[in-house]
Write a structure and sequence with these properties.
There is one protein chain. A two-stranded antiparallel sheet has the order 1-2. The protein has one domain (about 25-180): Up-down Bundle (Fumarate Reductase Cytochrome B subunit). The chain has helices spanning about 25-40, 50-70, 80, 85-95, 110-130, 140-170, 175-180; strands spanning about 20, 185. Helices cover about 60% and strands about 5% of the residues. InterPro entries: Cyt_b561_bac/Ni-Hgenase, Hydrogenase_cytochrome. This is Cytochrome b/b6 domain-containing protein. Keywords: Membrane, Transmembrane, Transmembrane helix.
């Protein structure tokens, strides 16, 4: 088939198949968390009122995501990507040897990172809320704990971005764009596209 510009359209066999992986709730949660955390650690760091309300938005997004992790579509569910120690260790070993399989959803390391970021962000939100209570007003230990959690989130987020870029290069797939569009290349060969119980 000839396209309007005179070039030949790829045959169905040459066109890579795609599959919808990330639903709108997962994508909206991801970018809400990214935007909120970056904003609160930079431009809103000293704007206490705005910082607080952005924190509330983040906590609300986490609450929705936690529910969605049990009732959402397949790749949104915790059962699809929360790996036990043996499966995680096996994946990390394969990754070091540069023979890790491509996962359609979160791989075991990505799943662990997601859980860590959710829990740390929730902890940061709770400690931030506590700082506004009369019982904890001006408590230096609480402010230090909140600050440490926030800095840990930023460090993990940077590691997460680097890992996503490396994995994108390793598997020739733009993982950042997939979290924008929701689409990824369909499974083939040794790709993993099934939920397996933690072990």
């Amino acid at each position: 088939m000839v396209l309007g510009d005179g070039s030949l359209a790829p045959s169905p066999a040459e066109t890579p198949k795609r599959t919808k992986v990330w639903d709108p709730v997962v994508r909206l949660f991801h970018w809400t968390l990214v935007t909120g955390i970056v904003a609160n650690l930079t431009v809103f760091r000293e704007l206490k009122a705005v910082h607080r309300y952005v924190g509330y938005v983040i906590v609300a997004a986490i609450a929705i995501r936690l529910v969605w992790g049990f009732v959402g579509p397949r790749h949104a569910r915790f059962s699809d990507f929360v790996a036990g120690p043996r499966r995680l260790a096996g994946y990390l070993k394969a990754m070091i040897q540069r023979r890790e399989p491509r996962y359609i959803g979160h791989n075991p390391a990505g799943g662990l990172m997601m859980i860590a970021l959710i829990l740390l962000s929730l902890f940061c939100g709770v400690t931030g809320w506590m700082m506004g209570l009369d019982a904890f007003w001006g408590a230096p230990w609480l402010e230090a704990t909140h600050e440490t959690a926030a800095n840990t989130i930023m460090a993990l987020a940077i590691l997460h971005v680097v890992a996503a870029l490396v994995e994108s290069w390793r598997h020739r797939e733009n993982l950042v764009m997939s979290m924008v569009t929701g689409w990824k290349r369909a499974a083939s060969g040794t790709d993993v596209d099934h939920a397996s119980p933690p072990r």
